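Trying the structure run again after the queue cleared.
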Amino acid sequence: MILPIVAYGDPVLKKKATEIAKDYPKLEDLIANMYETMYGASGVGLAAPQVGLPIRLFIVDTSPFADDEVLDEEEREQLKNFKHTFINPKIIEESGDEWAFNEGCLSIPDVREDVFRQPNIKVEYYDEAFKKQTLELDGLAARVFQHEYDHVEGVLFTDKLSSLKKRLIKGKLTNISKGKIRVDYRMRFPLLKKKR
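Done. Tokens:
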């Protein structure tokens, strides 16, 4: 089932999410619905807060990046097979010189900006079977993880922009929160006036 994606301005996107237990109600269904929602919106990642749930869960599938000719063969191969469900994730280590990449977000449609992140990370998480896993990631795979991880920390990519950039996109963000935007996927807008 495709879920509505929560738009910029909803308080759930700014809330630090809580960990979940193995017996979280209908977890398998939620994960399946999140994948269907992400694919329906042509995304490469989706966090539970983006579907209105303040829990530490997100999914990624970077296979759409695998066709990017700019990337070397090794990174394309890595991205083609990088599909994971991350439950209660933690970043253990971040290293390397920060690099910029133009990021966007399904909750903030039509806004893309360069965001600086470290290229190498080591993470711990639980998979769908609630088995503890450790992964070392770099490049775009690390970046997608960091972007989604920010969501469960209550941080949006726009929070990482300079104050000048934030001022320049303020009008766009206000319009998104009011539903004054066209998207080809279901969204829930926090400031959209309900007609009585």
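The mean pLDDT is 94. Worth checking whether this holds up in the mutant runs.
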